[in-house]
Specification:
449 residues; binds potassium ion; two-stranded antiparallel ribbon; homodimer; disordered N terminus; mainly alpha; two-stranded antiparallel sheet
Chain lengths: 449, 449
């Protein structure tokens, strides 16, 4: 039954989301605008502070100024913004996504489904508790391992740095306080792998992590359809990406001085970081054109729903590809792992994808127009790469961020926010769907967004 | 009721479509590979012949060799390929699209709609007859008017040329036998407007033309929802495109030597030709970056369903934008002109869009990879522009077509075919939907593809 009171509650939820993130951004911008946040010789404007705050809260990692030039105070503010931004979204999304009764209906009222679910029903308070505990535990373990790598390379303030980078990696933020970024780890297996594990874990999404945890520790539990799709797709994405980067960077300057076996590490790192961590162990601008184009695809796909990663999400890409492959047989529904995917699920995937493409196109066009007043000194690839990086909150750049005009910077700020909070708000339920527990083919539910 | 016999018939329809176009392409390639088709001093390879034949049958207009170097025999072959390619698809699509009982179901069986239609039911034979008559009539009128323009500019063989260009314009093919293309018409209102009218008429689609004809000539007829959307969207697209090109080319070399009022004509022409005729009165490579990016958007959108135009189609873009604007209220269905758009319709739009984006991305990536073996001498914009032009069968180019490597040419050939025949095959019905004539909100049906 339609319940107007219910509607008001859910609309409030969406308002709370926006209010929450906008408040953090305002506080962050203010704190980062104080001279105390920057070393005295650093030049920065209000837009730079706003850009850095939005980039941190949206866990993007793009920056118009070198954050190495921040004071410890500035770095701590940044760390908190990343943690709150990352955890905030993970908490919101885990709550919305894990509660199977609340669904977004993008289709018309006549096609509301008879819905029979085998998903787990979870208590919101329990979710928040477990998200916090899980995040902090993983980040602490990560920091512990990073400490040894950082000590080895004599990175100043190794305790703070390892905490900062562990949080930045798990939250898929990609900010680094090391001068020159992570390029020192290009050939360092231990440090590289620690980063990769943190990134992949953070980008899987809480639902997947909890499901795997339950699967290992409890009896009579089967993996959710969502988890299966995530695991298979993520493996395929990581290894095909690695193979492609390996091939197209093999003879390139980025892999210079490495043997054929040593080249696997940076190829793997590039494959993982591109969806959507944003750290780099090789200079992105030096990559070959094919590698840059492959990066565009991986960036747009992003990580898991309800994770710290951005992009249209792995499952969304999976569904879209699935429909394209199964094609016209889709009147039988999309069948994956012996489960039927509902039409509403597919429509959600399509809308998510469409919205992302349109936003990124508007972003590219806007920057091209803005830069045309300043002599159009950037290439189409540079601007496209920057816009994809912003909408998917990746943070990789071909090196143009700080040279952009003020209007272009504002467009990137908007794109980051739209890509993170705007796209996410699509999955917040608006209405309760009537659930008739008619026994029928069970439907598997795949998370979108 | 599901009827296996029905399924076989429809699958045959799809096979016929592919067989039909592949046969024409083989015949065309063979004819264009004969030396008799080319002036003796011309160099061309088998791939060039294949490319030209596919480009003609898919009414794209891209070419790896200069068409001006063809003999009259070659030009006549080209003309026939364009006419058969354009008319063939218009006939196939008008038949599939105009018969309201047959619908593609991309959603699962449970959400088959109670379908109440006010669309007109038309006889297939009648459709073929009226399509042929309409096409030939418009092309003859067009040729008649073009003749005067061609006579004025002393274009050789003015009778044949005006027929060729009238067909090429109505079929949205964009091939021109005039050395230097239509740039002589940049500032010529009469010739320009004749071309624009032919392009727009051809790009509207037979269903729209017939509907407008009925609306004017018969009583008690209301415009179809599809027609209303097409008319409104086309007007908005043409005039907003014109305005944008006017602004971004105003001070550019492309509009050199024109007064502010004279600049309106080429801006309008560029806006119309980009969706998906492919003629050019200004050099595309000389356009500003914003104009090139705007062209990408217009190319992808294309023209009307069941027309000679390509792209994802105006109504598809309309639905996608509509869902994005109405957003989360979409559980009430998308409401346009007091009609409700079904979820199946929206899903079709999303799939169409998704397929196009994925094909064009693969095309860009493939060409980047192929060209990386030849020194990557093209920019990302040039390759992106070429790929968008191919998938949407536009035919505009930043001037790289003939310099592409053989593999890249083959990729463009594939992209043209996929964009024209592949995408179109998505709308062919596979299954008959059970129609329950339960009285309910009437649903308007919008054509996709
Ligand atoms: K990031
Ligand atoms: K064309």
């Amino acid at each position: 039954m339609y319940n107007p009171a219910m509607r008001i509650i859910y609309l409030k939820e969406r308002d709370i989301l926006f209010l929450f993130f906008i408040s953090i951004i305002i506080i962050g911008t203010t704190l980062l605008f104080f001279p105390i946040a920057w070393q005295s010789d650093k030049e920065y404007t209000f837009v730079d502070s706003l850009f850095t705050a939005v980039s941190a809260v949206c866990v993007t990692g793009l920056s118009t100024v070198d954050i190495v030039g921040m004071t410890l105070f500035g770095k701590i503010v940044l760390l908190i913004l990343i943690q709150v931004g990352g955890l905030g979204l993970i908490t919101f999304s885990s709550m919305f996504l894990a509660l199977p009764r609340k669904k977004l209906t993008l289709a018309n009222t006549k096609i509301i489904q008879n819905y029979f679910t085998n998903e787990k029903i979870v208590d919101p308070k329990y979710i928040i508790k477990i998200v916090l505990r899980l995040t902090l535990t993983i980040e602490l373990i990560g920091a512990f391992f990073l400490f040894f790598s950082f000590k080895k390379f004599d990175i100043p303030d190794p305790i703070f740095s390892s905490i900062f980078h562990s949080v930045s990696a798990f939250c898929n933020a990609g900010f680094s306080t090391i001068p020159g970024g992570l390029e020192i780890f290009r050939n360092q297996a231990f440090g590289s792998v620690t980063f990769m594990l943190l990134i992949v874990t953070g980008g899987m999404g809480f639902v997947v992590l909890q499901d795997i945890f339950d699967f290992i520790c409890k009896r009579d539990v089967v993996l959710l359809l969502h988890t299966k799709i995530m695991l298979v797709s993520t493996l395929i994405l990581i290894f095909s990406g690695c193979l492609l980067f390996y091939i197209f960077e093999f003879d390139n300057i980025t892999f210079e001085g490495l043997t054929w076996s040593e080249k696997i590490l940076p190829a793997l790192f590039q494959s993982i970081t591109t969806r959507t961590a944003g750290f780099n162990t090789i200079n992105q601008g030096d990559m070959t054109m094919p590698s840059k184009a492959i990066s565009l695809g991986l960036m747009l796909i992003g990580g898991g729903s309800g994770s710290t990663a951005g992009g249209i999400k792995v499952t969304t890409a999976f569904l879209i590809l699935g429909v394209l492959v199964q094609g016209l047989n889709a009147d039988k529904g999309l069948t994956v792992f012996k489960r039927k995917i509902s039409s509403i699920n597919l429509t959600k995937a399509g809308i998510f994808f469409g919205k992302a493409i349109i936003i990124v196109f508007m972003s590219i066009l806007g920057i091209l127009i803005a830069e045309s007043f300043y002599g159009s000194k950037f290439t189409f690839m540079e601007i496209t790469f920057e816009s994809f990086s912003a909408i998917a909150t990746v943070g990789l750049s071909l090196g143009i961020t700080s040279d952009l005009s003020v209007i272009s910077k504002l467009i990137i700020i908007f794109t980051m926010f739209a890509g993170r909070i705007g796209l996410f708000s699509l999955i917040i339920p608006v209405n309760e769907i009537k659930i008739d527990r008619i026994i029928n083919y069970p439907e598997g539910e795949v998370l979108i967004g």
